[in-house]
Amino acid sequence: MTRLISGAVLILILLASSAFAEEPVDLARILSTVNSGYASIEDLHAEFSQRTYVASLKREEKGSGELFLKKKGGTAQFRFNYTRPKQNIISNGKNVWYYLPENKQVIITDTAKLFSGGNGMALSYLTGLGSIAKDFDIRLLAETPDKKGNYQLELIPKKQNPAVSKLHLFVSSDAVNKAQGSTGAFFPIASSVIFDQMGNRTTIEYSRIRINSGVASDKFNFTPPAGVDVIKQ
Question: Most exposed among 4, 73, 189, 212, judged by the fewest C-beta atoms under 10 Å?
Answer without folding.
Answer: 73
